[in-house]
Amino acid sequence: MVFLIALTIALATGAAGALDEPQRDIIGPKTLCFKYSSFQLAQGERVTDVRFGLEGMGIEVEGPLGRYGVRESEIFARPARLGRRVNRSEDASYYRSGNPVSYAVTGRTSYSPDRDTLVLWLSGPALTGQRADAAIYSRIAVGDPALLRCDIRYLYGWDVALGQEE
After folding, report:
1. 3-class DSSP assignment, residue 131
2. Among residues 38, 35, 47, which one has the least CA distance to residue 157?
């Protein structure tokens, strides 16, 4: 019963996610932190939309390279094949797939500390499948954003909806 009440309140009030700042039109350069990752919003880019759910969130970005979306979730269904790995950093692997092109980003999180898990999807018309896409996906890092200096922090989840976030 408590679960249903919490869900009803969260959905009715929009409390499934929160922002340090309530603005949606955020202009780079800025470090945007999510629950398990961060993204460097570049000079000339702006966040045009933010969407929250109980188990994920997403932003829409517009800038000189075009429009694209960054989506993070705790419950992405991992496809049988992520695509072709196009890059690996210390904390993440980046996979290109599909037509239209999208990128899956994997890394280790607090809920998957021993193996990489699918954390983010990057998609939109700015992504062409060419090397120039690295200018976008290379600005994503997977890991504990609490260790970063964030300009904007996006929170989502049951702990936020129930007012128990740290």
Report:
1. helix
2. 35
